[in-house]
Amino acid sequence: MEKQKTRVDDINRERFDFRDADKSGYKTGKGLTADIVTEISKMKNEPAWMLKHRLRSLEIYHRTPLPAWGPPLGKLNMDEIVTYVKPDTGLKSDWNEVPEYIKNTFERLGIPKAERESLAGVGAQYDSEVVYHNIRRELLSQGVIYTDMETAVQEHEDIVKELFMKLVPPQDHKFAALHGAVWSGGSYVYVPEGVRLAIPLQSYFRLNAPGAGQFEHTLIVVEKGASVHFIEGCSAPKYNVLNLHAGCVELYVREGATLRYSTIENWSKNMMNLNTKRALVEKNATIEWISGTFGSNTTMLYPSSILKGEGARSTFTGITFAGNGQHLDTGAKVVHAAPNTSSTVSSRSISKDGGIAVYRSVINILQNASESKSSIVCESLMMDSVSRSDTIPVMDIRNDRVDIGHEAKIGRISDAAIFYLMTRGLPEEEAKAMIVRGFVEPIAKELPLEYAVEMNRLISLELEGTIG
Amino acid sequence: MRQLAATINRMPVNTWRRLDVNEAELVMRGPDKKPGAGGANIQASGQIQIRQNFEGLDFGEDAAKLFVPAEMGAFIDEHTNRRHFIRIPNDHTEQEPIVLAMRLNGENQVLVDDVVIEAGEGSNAAVILHYTSENGVPAYHCGRTRLIVHRNARVKLVKVQMLGSEAAHADAIGGHVQEGAQLDVIIAELGAARPLSGCNLVLDGEGAGAGLDVVYLGDGRRSLDMSYRVEHRGRATVSDICAKGILLERSKKVFRDTLDFVRGASGSKGREEESVLMLSPEVRNISVPLLLCGEDDVEGEHAMTSGRPDERILFYLMSRGINELAAKKLLAQAAFSSIIEKIPDAAVRNEILGTVHKSIERGG
User: Fold this and answer.
1) Mean per-residue pLDDT for B268-286?
2) Higher pLDDT pick, A234 / B150
3) B328: in domain
């Protein structure tokens, strides 16, 4: 008898796939030249050091080869990408002043509702610029800053100049250099010493223009003893041309501080998502990464934590769902650079209908990181034999006084688990659904409730037949 | 002397280049002319066919090629001074292990060996390849061992490298395992300055099985580079990779192990496990365990642990009157014993443990 297989539906993208007519106020030409980079800087009225940084990054971009590993990137042609698309509005802090069509877009994505109900502040980026930013007044009075990066460059120039692209320098890789040349938009967050935000801040990035790139920069500084939860959401409508996302996130978590950085990424399947995220974690501070990767054609994303201070901690909880036509290469990096540091990585992936899910990671334990601990658990669920699931971890350990554990599993839904649930009275279909939901549960439970519901909705199940 | 430079032990898939693990560089100085045969001693019953050429042998696909670059293959073809074709006849069970002991000394410093083992249908045998060299001799070994394990045969290959700490050593194993057959490979990498070791086993036939057990020892400034892979190609194939390592003093090791389930290998199961005992703050321990999967109906698992001996166990042993050095030796022996016990030769087992104990006395 031929084996029948459990089927997990594709991500339901209906809610994200609508598109607006291109009403951009201004856009650069296609391609990547020094003139275009200078033009972007001029449009933003930037200080001279930033233009210099952009032009230097452009030089580095041109001389840096594409990565010799990971998904194929040959179909990306920068000559066809528009790097800067300015919407026909400026930055607003009153939702009513945002143009109607942009408002409708974010209404459909549920952003204003979320702001009213569960967020301390919201930023909304449409193509290359942030169109709306707002923060609750009581946070302002505590000295919390939450604004777009362009405003930060003007109003907080000293700190931006000190920190901007210092954690992710343009030399890091080709797309970090690209980002350094054409970055636009993004958020700047500053949480003063001792301030603990009880409810999250959220930035939502929407790329509407076809054939365009989005290169937002997020810079967050959480001062000593402070804490914040930052949520990042991303989506775009599907076009027949390739879009590019090469954002950059730099996080500074000072002594005793805590930062939770959550991302639900649901780019359309014409998107190349080549994003870089890095955190510098000081003494007894904590970075918590929550990462859901559902969309895009190709993703290369490995949030990294540099545990610089003694007792620093990092946790990474990620799920990747690769469907037809998707090649999602995700994972995490941790550098243990001080004693008594600890890290945990928990990664899960589902691949189906020819999708390719790759878990890639590196754990570095440096010589001075004695008494450090690291635990990595990686599980991959294969739904059919036309898909792929690869696990490519590296552990580089240079100290003997450490405790390192790594576990990885690949396979399909366990027959024994289904059988067990059925002996407890669950119908077969329900048993399978429960197992798949249970598989993503470690991620879902880390998300705020409304995002957990959203994620469960993203993974709708259609089950048929028996598990073969 | 001719220089051989090649990229070896290339990973089946690449990762970040800056980690410097995607491959290893092999630089060896080869002999100008074909070297002499060197000292070798072969023990086997009269039933076993042994000859010094590969005439008439059709390799078909060569699994060893994955870790033997073309330059190294050509080098071996050209410079081989020990070529052995060992055939175990169909349905024959060889009671005692077939032993090839190869010792390098001042007169015979160079060994380039090329060994093919063919196990006929239903046969059963163990083969031990044992490499040693005199202390202080700049010995040189470059070798390749290929196995063809036919239907329902069982072969155990034990490869023990105990060359002196000045020796150069590069070695690769390739094996094809047919329906219902079982190939167990035990590798002990205990000597040489910068040992390079590779092994690629392909489970071609339905129900084929492979065990790959590795013990390695890093002491002094030894830098080990190892790449091992099992490919599940046939249905219902089973594999188990198990590695136990001890790192002392300023040694370094890169250990890459891969389980590759290709499409069609339904019902297969594979497991890889590595545990590393680190006995010095100056060692460097790099592990790259890959799980590659193109088939859903499989079970693949990997586990790796690394660190110092558990302080509580050390304390317990010392509280029973065992000094720290002896306690460490005991723990090292315990770490290796599950693999060493599988070697069907007591003298070899004792020699391995003796080497480990001496290293711990020096650097533990």
Assistant:
1) 95
2) B150
3) no
| Closest in B286, B304, B308 to A396, CB measured | B286
- Would you state the structure tokens that stand for residue B361, as one six-digit string? 């006395």
A68 — contact with chain B (CB < 8 Å)? yes
> Do A396 and B304 count as a contact with CB atoms less than 8 A apart?
no
Flag whether residue A417 sits within 8 Å of chain B, measured between CB atoms: no
**Span B61-85, average pLDDT:** 88
Which residue in the set B263, B282, B305 is minimally distant from A405, CB to CB? B305
Structurally, chain B folds into a number of domains equal to 1
Average pLDDT of chain A is: 88
Mean of pLDDT values over B224-253: 97
Mean pLDDT is lowest, of A289-303, A391-405, B1-15, for B1-15
Q: Quick check: A73 contacting B, CB < 8 Å? A: no
- Residue B68 is assigned to a structural domain of this protein: yes
Question: Position of tokens 């690394």?
Answer: B306
Range of the domain at B64: 2-308
Give me B167's structure tokens. Answer: 């020796």
pTM of the full structure: 0.92
Does B17 reach chain A within 8 Å, measured CB to CB? yes
Please report whether residue A439 resides in a domain. no
**Residues spanned by the domain of A356:** 26-427
Tell me, what's the pLDDT at A462? Answer: 38
**Per-residue pLDDT at A467:** 31
B64, pLDDT greater than 70: yes
Whether the CB of A394 is below 8 Å from some CB of chain B: the reply is yes
Q: Do B300 and A409 touch (CB under 8 A)?
A: yes
Q: Which residue of A has its CA nearest to B247?
A: A400
**Which of A191, A183, A295, A144 lies closest to A233, judged by CA?**
A295
Domain count within chain A: 1
The least confident of A6-20, A189-203, B171-185 is: A6-20
Rounded CA-CA distance B212/B239 in Å is: 8
CA atoms within 13 A on the CB side of B72: 29
Sequence-distant (≥ 6) Cβ neighbours of residue B300 within 8 angstroms = A408, A409, A410, A411, B259, B261, B269, B270, B271, B291, B293
C-alpha dihedral, A144 to A147 to A150 to A153, nearest 10°: 0
CB contact under 8 A, A405 and B304: yes
Q: What is the pLDDT of residue A235?
A: 76
* The predicted structure's pLDDT at residue A468: 28
Among A397, A402, A403, A467, the strongest candidate for a mutation testing the B interface, having the largest count of B CBs within 10 A, is A397
